[in-house]
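Field: COMPLEX_INPUT
Field: COMPONENT_COUNT = two
Field: RESIDUE_TOTAL = 296
Field: MODE = joint
Values follow.
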Amino acid sequence: MIRVGETQWEGFDGLAEDLLEELRPEAEGAVFAAGAYFVSELKTTLTGQRSGRVYRVAKRKTAPQHQASREGEAPAVLFGHLRNSAGMDEPKWEGRHSVGVHVGIGLGVQEDSEIAENYALRLEYGGTDSRGVYMAPRPYMQPTVDRVTPRIDAMFAEIVGGAR
Amino acid sequence: MNWDILLDAFTGEVAAMPAVVALAGEAVRYGGEVEHEVPSCVIRMISDTESELWAPVTVQVDLFHKSAAVVLTAERALRRRYHADLPIPIGNLNAWAQYSDGTVTASPERDGYFGRALRFTFTPLRAAYSGG
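Field: COMPLEX_OUTPUT
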């Protein structure tokens, strides 16, 4: 899997304990904000018109039409299961100097391990479904990581700068 | 902008690697709307972030073959070549090359063949730093 599940900041080494106490809430806030920003950008990636195949979502003639994604595009929203499963958990401390938060698929309002483990992975990398049909990748996580990384780096840099 | 030069050079190199030739023969191609083939080696660009200073490029290589051993030999060869601590020459470019990720995309008990997707991140150096 893409290792983007965690936004983490380690910047406390060598600081006095009283200063650490002062900085911890700020660091936790920065990590939380970075995680929330990532989730919102991930949902943005998973939103919008696509240019793939058009088909009816049910067999009856009056059923609404759905336009799927083309190979290489982020997935189109049909029922919204993937997008609704994007989310984050609470910031957690590892020891005294490191705080992190998990973000990704399977942590949102729709928690479904099947989506997290199979569907999400198959869309990102491509793969064969239960009928044995190969589907080319519809990457959504990697483009989001590329897009948000500079901004998240800047968010952490602001905190580090503020600590000086 | 270097991603097009890099992708061309990378595809040429991969198509000529003995382990990839053993896996796919001439069935090495860019990803696109064509029928899925086994065996094959499919290369596609996942992202190019032109807005960043160094413009890294993520490329996915899909390997499909009925034999796990053939897939793994090709994977090992690709990772040995394209995961390095220092910049490596790819075509006329010098680039940082790192294996960033991989996953299984097909399994023999269900599909009758093996599938592996590998992702490499390339960061072409600016001409000023290429020593040429």
